[in-house]
Write a structure and sequence with these properties.
Blueprint lengths: L4 H5 L2 H7 L11 E2 L3 E4 L2 E5 L12 H14 L14 H14 L3 E5 L2 H12 L4 E6 L4 H9 L3 E5 L4 H9 L6 E7 L11 H10 L3 E5 L13 H4 L8 E5 L9 E5 L1 H10 L1 H4 L6 H16 L2 H20 L10 E5 L3 H13 L2 E2 L1 E3 L10 E5 L6 H17 L4
Parallel strand pairs: 3-12, 5-6, 5-7, 7-8, 8-9
Antiparallel strand pairs: 1-2, 2-3, 4-10, 9-10, 11-14, 13-14
Helix pairs in contact: 3-12, 4-12, 5-6, 7-8, 13-15
This protein binds 4'-deoxy-4'-aminopyridoxal-5'-phosphate.
Family: Belongs to the class-II pyridoxal-phosphate-dependent aminotransferase family.
GO molecular function: pyridoxal phosphate binding; transferase activity
Cofactor: pyridoxal 5'-phosphate
């Protein structure tokens, strides 16, 4: 049997392309943050993770450019061998301080951070316990590990307790949750989860890819709940609020030391270029110096949630600047995406398996740098499209 047979038989995406409503891999000609250019048309970006709008901040750009001039374009090797710069270590110290942990370790993406951290920590005799809406990189990290995987219903603390009860006492346990869930824009129920974890001797890791820079005054979801010390490991990415590329894990020194020497996605992959590290350092400086950005993105999130709900859209349980518009089936999700796109609003259509069947949605997300005029225009277009397609 030809191993490529499945490729010729794969028609799901082709069917959507033929209908002229294919929404993925769209090549943008320009990206100035809140506006992008596609085939000569300016479109308001409501589908990026550039929450604080820092990808175009002069200080962040300048830091990247200066780092290229000084260090060149690549480290051409792993952190483990030739690819560690003083700059990486300086950033690790800054990140540990930012999230209130002893040490931090930089990986080359957030995906690699989750793959390496979870798989190295969860050994044969251990159990990793995941929320059903955890990000794919957490699930894949768990799959790469040799331990057992258990899952609990999204933010369902009673179900989590039943799962914890079912695990034999001699097993190590790691609970991993998103701080801000990437599709729903809701928060992990840390105030109820942490006491339970303590009761059952489980360690807790929070992936705050979408919380860092946004929740807890910018310092993340654990900080927002006043639980920085109770969360054992805080993970995040540089590809969202930090306006770069890379990821990190932060925690107690001995845990970070262990991960540093056992995580294969760290050891066998090249480190981030100096320009990426320097941009993150500059982004953190800006976040500290301009707290109004954090306030602004949260205020925009609140306006959007209020207005879209008022219009009659189903926005689920969002409490952040990630606001899902739940549509509930594939075809209407793609058609509403296309109508918004044609009218000048960029959002992300999300269908199964990224969300459960029946929960197909338009993922919208906002930036501190969106103007009031842009937000008003986005809301008007949403209302029009919602009515035209009988969604509201
Ligand atoms: N965790 C979560 C919750 C994410 O949303 C993402 C990216 N979408 C990642 C991890 C992976 O981060 P990166 O893009 O840096 O690989």
């Amino acid at each position: 049997m030809d191993i490529f047979k499945k490729c010729t038989e794969y028609t799901d995406a082709k069917a959507v392309i033929e209908k002229g409503i294919y929404p993925y891999f769209l090549p943008l000609a320009e990206n100035e943050g809140t506006e992008v250019v596609y085939e000569g048309r300016h479109i308001i970006m409501c589908g990026s993770n550039n929450y604080l709008g820092l990808t175009t901040h002069p200080k962040v750009k300048e830091a990247g450019i200066k780092a290229i001039e000084r260090f060149g374009t690549s480290c051409t090797g792993s952190r483990f061998l030739n690819g560690t710069l003083e700059l990486h270590e300086q950033l690790e110290k800054e990140l540990a301080d930012f999230v209130g942990k002893e040490e931090a370790l930089i990986f080359s993406t957030g995906m690699q951070t989750n793959l390496g951290t979870i798989s190295s920590l969860v050994g044969r005799d251990d159990v990793v316990i995941l929320d059903k809406e955890d990000h794919a990189s957490i699930v894949d990290g768990a799959r790469l590990g040799y331990g057992k995987i258990e899952r609990f219903r999204h933010n369902d603390i009673e179900h989590l307790e039943r799962v914890l009860q079912s695990i034999p006492e001699d097993r190590g346990r790691l609970i991993v949750v998103d701080g801000v869930f990437s599709m729903g824009g809701d928060l992990a129920d840390l105030p109820n989860l942490i006491p339970l974890a303590k009761k059952y001797g489980a360690r807790v890791m929070v992936d705050d890819a979408h919380g860092m820079g946004v929740t807890g005054g910018g310092r993340g979801t654990a900080h927002g709940f006043g639980m920085d010390n109770e969360v054992d490991l805080i993970m995040s990415t540089f590809s969202k609020s930090f306006a770069s590329l890379g990821g990190f894990i932060a925690g107690d020194s001995n845990v970070i030391h262990f991960v540093k020497h056992t995580a294969r996605s760290l050891i066998f992959s090249a480190s981030i270029p100096a320009s990426n590290a320097a941009s993150v350092l500059a982004a953190i400086e800006v976040i500290k110096a301009e707290p109004e950005r954090v306030e602004r993105v949260n205020a925009i999130g609140e306006t959007i949630r209020t207005e879209l709900s008022k219009m009659g859209f189903n926005i689920g349980n969002s409490v952040t600047p990630i606001v899902p518009v739940i549509i509930g089936e594939d075809d209407l999700t793609f058609r509403s995406w296309k109508a918004l796109f044609d009218n000048g609003v960029f959002v992300n259509p999300v269908v199964s398996p990224a969300v459960a069947p029946g929960q197909q949605l338009l993922r919208t997300s906002y930036m501190a740098t969106h103007t009031d005029e842009q937000i008003e225009k986005v809301l008007q277009i949403f209302e029009q499209v919602g009515k035209d397609l009988a969604i509201i």
